[in-house]
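Thread title: Can someone regenerate the structure for this chain?

I was given the following input by a collaborator and told the matching structure tokens would be attached. They weren't. Posting the sequence so someone can regenerate them.
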Amino acid sequence: MIRRRSWPRVHLSLLLFSCSVLLLSFPALVSSAMVTLDSIEIFKMHDLIPWDGTIFFRCKGENDTVLPDVKQKHVLYLFKGVESWQPLTELQDVKCKRCGIYEKTVIRSEDVFDEWEFCPSDFTGSDGRYLRFKDKEFNATFLCPQCVPLASDNSSDWDDDSEEIPWILVGVVVIITSGMFVCGLVASCRWWQQRKRKQQQARFLKMFEEADDDFEDELGIGPLSHTI
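Best answer:
Regenerated them for you:
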């Protein structure tokens, strides 16, 4: 009974240890960075009638982020990054997103200023700024200070592949070894419990047979009752 109660605690401790190893081995998997719009200037409107459109930013698979203050062309709009519609999007690790700036017009439901791959490596400025210019369309500056370390990590990965890959392999080996250790321990405990249960059953059957033989001898119907 005592061993059966202690088994779940051992199992839980091993699972927590494995999860800790996983998180420590791959800290970059949880890296993220917020992107805000620092400034934008529109050079051309796509609506043929007097403009009453809406400018918005969107990444593939995400909701539209409307820029409510952008109403006129050839006007430089500056933002603080704390507006109610900020941030524009969130970048994970070094992965890029397909994003763009669009316009909702009366004639067309949606018109494209520009679409491009939005990556942490684009923020090459020391302050985390990225300038996007589209000829005769717009000029925009995006801000992402948290993208600077992500971009530097990405460049260092390309420059130091021979140093980074062994660390990744070490992490994979540690995780696989921990998993095999846990599985082996689980299998060993189950085998020990089954073996213990079989021994108890065998001992019980043996005691029952001995008790049955003694009872038959007392009644005179056992194998020794016919001996003289």
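The radius of gyration is 35 Å.
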